[in-house]
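Internal tracking record. Fields below are filled automatically when a chain is submitted to the structure queue. Please do not edit lines marked as system-generated. If the sequence contains nonstandard residues, flag them in the REMARKS field before resubmitting.
Queue: standard
Priority: normal
Entity type: single polypeptide chain
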Amino acid sequence: MQFQWKKYMLAMTLLCCGQFYLCAQGSEFNKRILLDQRSTIFRNILVDGDSLIISGEIGEDSLGLSGIFVLKIDSFGNIGKMHYFRDPSLNDHLLLDGKKPFIRNNSGNLIVTGVFLVRDDLYFMDLDENLDSIIYREYLSNYVTMYAEDVFEYEDSYYVTGHIQSSHGDHDVFFQKIDKKGNKIWEKTYGVPSRDEVCRAAIVENGGLTLLISEAFDNTPTIKNDTRYWIRFMHIDTSGTILSDWKEEVTGHEGWSGSLVKYGTDYIYTANFLGEEYGFGFFQAGQVVRRDKDFHLIWRRQYGAPDTYFNGLGDLIIAPDSNLLITGQILDESKKNVLQRVMKICPDGEILWEVRDTGIILNDGESLNYMEGIVASSCNSTYAVGYSYKSSGFYEGLILKVSGDGCIDTLCTTVDIEEILKNKINNAKVYPNPASDHITFDTKDASEERNVELFNLQGNLMIRQNLSPGSNTIQIDKSVFPEGLYIWRLTDKTGKLINVGKIVVLR
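SYSTEM-GENERATED OUTPUT FOLLOWS
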């Protein structure tokens, strides 16, 4: 499925702060995905060889329970292995709504953390390569509400950070250490009753973790729509002891904390200015801030122009080329469409390129999108995931690929076709090229069973056919294949890639 575009801006530059060049393509890989026709929210994304792994939340099943999912998408956007998870006791809903509660550990397994909707207890899962749970644990909560934002692996343990709300209505930073078997080692909270403290991101460094915290500087945190926060950095060792604590000076430029990365010795993070509604509603502006190791301000930039009405920034990562990639959403000039947004910026804050899209257009002509996770492959392609509002309580998952130069890519490939062709051993010959009514595939071992797939440049699968031993030709239906360029992919019977290439079809 393809998106309807209202507008998009595709830009790239040869050097940071240099001259800009426009780049555009008529077709794009920009998909909406519904799982089992249930509300689908994409939260996080990882690169897995030549595939992608996505996690998120899925709507109610036949028992009326919503849960979470983990799925694999192959190099052309086809869904492969997928696993749903729900409350084993079948009486609550599983949530996965943190910044990065989904990581790959040093053993190659997937670690997932989140909370239950009603009970607000924490859960922890260790998934193997088949997406099966080999460790599942629940940790009872004594708090009114709990949010699990991030999970980290450090040495021989995992650390989960987030925030809780106490019985007094006060928000505090939450921190828990878990061993490799899923046993809770300790749990701590940090905060004072007169202020709200919320942790949404952290990084591993200097023998511990540095937490990025939003702290209310108004002394009446229980007042509705109290949205004034400053940034606080707290460094904690593996026992949970605070080693250092730094608070931002209140200047009127502070914001609600977002994502954090360590860039050399500097800290770069996102922060959103909140508007009238606490945590939801309109944002005044989104900003990225860079500070040195002593937290001195290097630069602070807002990214709202030309629209400044709604500008929420999501995930922030460092790309393989050492620039920065950011997801988010922004209200357009019509004030009807909240556009999905992906940006690439230089380390000095200058925009290299930006992509925007409307997602689903509703009957009233409006749209609402949220972009969450982002990842970059080794060939410098960018993948962003999120979700688009479809109806009350119902969403479709979004996945978008952008090429290294800021163009919407035509195929969901984690490795560029040209790169594969350049590096691949010549283990398959495909002819004739151009082709008219048939294509022949010759491989080194024709005695093995193979599978062939042909895709058009929109990433749509046109044909999938099994080639039995000794059979190596597929027929091209002229009514299905118009003239043009196509991508072929040849795999063995286990699905392992043999080769991939391009072929021209003529009539």
